[in-house]
Amino acid sequence: MYSHNMVGSNDLAKAKTFYDATFQALGGKEAIQDDKGRLIYMHNNGIFIVTPPIDGQPATAGNGCTIGFAVDSPEQANAWHDAGVAAGGKAIEDPPGVREGGMGALYLAYLRDPDGNKLCVLKRM
Questions:
Q1: pTM of the full predicted structure?
Q2: Are 91 and 85 within 8 A, CB to CB?
Q3: Which of 47, 63, 77, 99 is 20 to 30 Å from 57 by CA-CA measure?
Q4: Domains in the chain and their CATH numbers?
Q5: Using CA atoms, how far apart are residues 72 and 26, in angstroms rounded to an integer?
Q6: Please, which residues have CB within 8 angstroms of residue 3's CB and are 6 or more apart in sequence?
Q7: pLDDT tens, 47-65?
């Protein structure tokens, strides 16, 4: 059912620095830009787009929204987290690690991008 995800940004240069670093940590490539200036990331059959809002209003992070990316290992999750912090993201919640819950043991790491969007990487243990 999933086709793509899109987040808004108020500063595409900062967003590109952040997302290029985090997607490259997952084995992806840096963004391509379309004719509207949107940043497009394609990796593992998914598409992730960063754009200034079409309505011309400021981009805001969704309250209660989290965008999750699957990773192959805890080491890849840590590399993603480290790359994101180094590229202007903010570490949030608990440090990267295993959390036990109703879905079993999950290795999770969380960041906010430079525009405040909440992101997570997940490895099922």
A1: 0.91
A2: yes
A3: 47
A4: 4-53+65-124 (3.10.180.10)
A5: 9
A6: 47
A7: 999 999 989 999 999 888 9
